[in-house]
Design brief:
Blueprint lengths: L1 H13 L1 H21 L15 H12 L9 E7 L9 H15 L4 E5 L13 E8 L8 H16 L3 E6 L10 H19 L2 H29 L3 H31 L4 H28 L7 H31 L7 H4 L6 H17 L18 H11 L1 H16 L7 E2 L11 H13 L7 E6 L6 H13 L4 E4 L3 E2 L5 E8 L6 H12 L1 H8 L2 E5 L1 H35 L3 H26 L15 E2 L2 H29 L4 H29 L6 H33 L8 H6 L34
Parallel strand pairs: 5-11
Antiparallel strand pairs: 1-3, 1-4, 2-3, 6-9, 6-10, 7-9, 8-9
Helix pairs in contact: 1-2, 1-9, 1-10, 2-7, 2-10, 4-5, 6-7, 6-22, 7-8, 7-10, 8-9, 8-10, 8-22, 9-10, 9-21, 13-22, 14-20, 14-23, 19-20, 19-21, 20-21, 20-23, 21-22, 21-23, 22-23
Length: 768
């Protein structure tokens, strides 16, 4: 693989204009597709085949065809001024006028008057009107929305407080807004500090933005056909931007290193893509596998999010392998430091001397001296080497501190509660949240999440009597406030009614109530001859959360086993993968613990703009596990590949750790800071799901990169010594050899491709 990528890097460098043109054409084609494609929908974020709530929902669609369930809706809430009632003559007149105006509006199916539908609170302070439309929210025209907005404004002018919930006027929050821009700006600052060059800092940002642009345009172009939502695109842009910057950073950093070693520009580009690019391919593959693996969970929306994000990662990898060396070919010296731009002496004699010394050291069995790697070879000290020596001098203390610290942070994860936040999680500045609060105050906390009961009475001797018995028994269940009269379909074989809980939709007591109603089912079915199931948004969210919670541990186990196999393949070791998997588990559990503490317990929630705490979004833990797995393997590969390379070349284990940190620590740290900056930008999103995922990923990268990979890993390697790189002979013969860091480029002569058109410089066989 390294040899192939080496040739690819040289080819992209030599044919830079053609490569850049091809990427420009791809970007233009994707952009044109996005502009001409129909608008994407909101997607089905909570539907999951196989669960009871989904089966009941499907039954409703089958037995009640042509219902307005799929159409847009608006629940308009009217609140009288303090001390007044909505039933007063002037207030009632204003509400009647609102219903009449909206009912005559375009695309409106029905507008139900609260005074004829018993939609007035007991104290008459609050009432609500339900407006349904003939089309979905995405298909509402400007005229349809404007008619509702103007009627709302007129009702407000009468002195009523009017808020609107539902999908008709639901706002679509931006992905990250100014906070996201700040994250990208911080990434630029980190790149500038790392490279000390505007061009070197700007190139990873430019290529990452191009990659994300292609990915997002592709998602928009396919959004309508594949049912992709804005949330799906946001997550893809989040991960695509982060890995796009990081992967380009690794290639540019290795290019600069090879130029400092005296290689000419084209050769340096080939070596950078063959070495760092090989690690990019492996790291990107782990991310893609983890994201694509989300499809096995069984949630269509989770599958779409994972596959779209995986596609964005693939684009980022291809950009790093082709467009980055092409742009380096256009400005080969612009990304270099001032020192490196000066002419260098040829390194042929120096490399030959180094090779003879290395062979001599191996023959003599020398691996340096010093427990903490005090013998220095292959470069000057930097922050990475100083930190590595600090850890190597006190590995037990560092190891215990890392495990204890992450363990304490992981404790809140034991109280993880999953759910699907709704309007109650939106900022109070939105009319949806204010409408939710007004309905909860006027009609009770459970009013916003009624349970829908669908009863199949086809086999009952008395269908109407059976439905009435089921409704009455459920109405008598503790925790149920009210039950609506059963409504039958045209064939009379199915009844539909709703039950309003006494508790809020995301309250644990509501979950218990659903289980209690379902537990009463065998007796009711025996007495009536009818069967029933519970659905509705509340029951759907409960069932989805339970199914995902049940799938979390198996998915985590699969990810851990996968990491063991992949790292064993790369590092030819048994204990290094075990250590990596253990560190991955620590970072994931600690990040979940912090998410629970902030978003569920409310610790520091106000600092992040979280106005309503509650259960964690049910999709979040599995999504977090998949992404963090890929990123953890990224850092493991980029950090330890240079360590293993130094060890194989004859250095003692401790000195190999120091050498690995000398070459990789600074770049890995910069990559991690960039990841944290980009993910943190999405914390500013008004969408609860995006805010939670952005925060969780930022914290997970912080823990995994700086605590696990930078501290726990060298401490464990110091304690294991040579045993860290042990692999049974039978397993070594069984495992295929995968050259991730380009070791093959240092062991064989690579025939250099012929000169590119117009390139008259001499070329020769290269040995590194």
């Amino acid at each position: 693989m390294a040899t192939f990528l080496y040739r690819m890097g040289r080819a992209a460098f030599g044919r830079r204009r053609l490569v850049a043109l091809l990427w420009a054409v791809i970007l233009g084609a994707a952009g044109a597709g996005a502009l001409t494609a129909p608008a994407a929908g909101d997607g089905d974020t909570s539907f999951m085949p196989g669960i009871e709530a989904q089966r009941a929902f499907d039954l409703i669609g089958e037995r009640f065809p042509g219902s307005d369930a799929d159409g847009a809706n608006a629940r308009v809430v009217f609140i009288a001024p303090d001390g007044e009632k909505v039933t007063a003559a002037d207030r009632r007149s204003a509400i009647d006028a609102f219903v009449a105006d909206v009912g005559d509006g375009p695309q409106v199916a029905t507008a139900v008057n609260p005074f004829t539908a018993d939609a007035v609170s007991e104290d008459a302070s609050t009432a609500y009107a339900t407006v349904t439309y003939k089309v979905k929210a995405d298909d509402l025209t400007d005229a349809g929305r404007t008619g509702l907005e103007e009627a709302v404004d007129e009702a407000r002018d009468s002195g009523l407080t009017v808020e609107v919930g539902g999908s008709a006027l639901a706002s679509q929050p931006a992905a990250g807004g100014a906070a996201e821009a700040i994250g990208i700006g911080l990434a630029a600052v980190v790149l500038l500090i790392t490279f000390g060059s505007l061009a070197a800092a700007g190139l990873p940002l430019l290529t990452a933005v191009i990659g994300v642009g292609i990915s997002m345009c592709g998602i928009l172009a396919l959004g309508s056909a594949l049912g992709l939502s804005m949330t799906t695109g946001t997550l893809a842009s989040m991960l695509g931007l982060a890995v796009g910057i990081d992967y380009a950073l690794f290639v540019v950093s290795r290019y600069r290193e090879e130029r400092e070693n005296g290689h000419e520009a084209r050769e340096a580009a080939g070596l950078a893509v063959g070495t760092a690019g090989s690690a990019v391919v492996f790291a990107g593959a782990t991310v893609v596998i983890a994201l694509a693996g989300l499809s096995v969970v069984g949630v269509p929306m989770l599958t779409k999010m994972g596959l779209c994000a995986a596609g964005a990662v693939v684009v980022g990898v291809l950009v790093a392998l082709t467009l980055v060396p092409a742009l380096l070919g256009m400005w080969p010296n612009a990304v270099l430091s001032r020192k490196t731009r000066k002419p260098h002496k040829a390194l042929t004699s120096r490399k030959a001397l180094t090779s003879r010394k290395t062979r001599k050291a191996r023959k003599a069995g020398k691996r340096g001296t010093g427990v903490s790697g005090e013998r220095r070879t292959g470069g000057a000290d930097n922050g990475g080497t100083r930190w590595a020596r600090f850890v190597l001098r006190r590995p037990v203390t560092v190891l215990l501190a890392c495990v204890a610290g992450l363990g304490v942070l992981a404790l809140p994860a034991a109280d993880l509660q999953l759910g699907m936040p709704g309007d109650e999680a939106k900022p109070v500045s939105t009319t949806e949240r204010r409408a939710y609060d007004a309905l909860a105050d006027g009609f009770g906390p459970g009013f916003n999440g009624p349970l829908t009961i669908v009863a199949d009475v086809a086999d009952a001797s008395d269908p109407e009597g059976a439905a009435s018995v089921i409704a009455a028994r459920i109405g008598d269940t503790e925790g149920v406030v009210s039950v609506s009269p059963p409504r039958f379909n045209a064939d009379g074989d199915t009844a539909l009614f709703s039950a309003v809980p006494a508790t809020a939709p995301n309250d644990e007591r509501t979950k218990d109530l659903v289980q209690t109603i379902r537990a009463e089912r065998p007796g009711l079915e025996s007495d009536t001859g009818a069967v029933f199931e519970v659905t509705g948004s509340t029951a759907m969210n409960i069932d989805v959360a339970q199914a995902l919670q049940d799938a979390l541990v198996p998915y985590l186990a699969v990810i851990v086993l996968l990491s063991l196999a992949l790292l064993m393949l790369v590092f030819r070791s048994v204990l290094v993968p075990v250590k990596a998997a253990f560190g991955f588990l620590l970072s994931v559990l600690a990040s979940l613990g912090v998410v629970v503490a902030v978003f569920q317990w409310g610790w520091g929630a106000g600092l992040l703009g979280v106005e309503q705490t509650g259960p964690i979004m049910s999709l979040m833990p599995i999504f977090l596990v998949g992404i963090v797995f890929g990123l953890a393997m990224d850092y493991e590969v980029f950090l330890l590949s240079r360590t293993r390379e130094a060890y194989v070349r004859g250095e003692r284990p401790a000195q190999a750790v120091v050498s690995g940190f000398r070459h990789s620590a600074r770049v890995v740290a910069a990559a991690a800071v960039i990841m944290i900056a980009v993910f943190s930008g999405f914390v500013g999103s008004g969408e609860s799901m995006i805010k939670t995922i952005g925060f969780g990923l930022a914290v997970a990268v912080l823990f995994d990169a700086f605590v696990v990979r930078m501290a726990l890993v060298p401490a464990v390697l110091a304690l294991l010594g040579d045993r860290a790189w042990w692999l049974p002979r039978w397993l070594d013969r069984l495992l295929p050899h995968v050259d991730v860091e380009g070791a093959g480029l240092t062991e064989q002569a690579l025939p250099v491709p012929g000169p590119a058109a117009g390139d008259t410089r001499p070329h020769a066989t290269v040995r590194t």
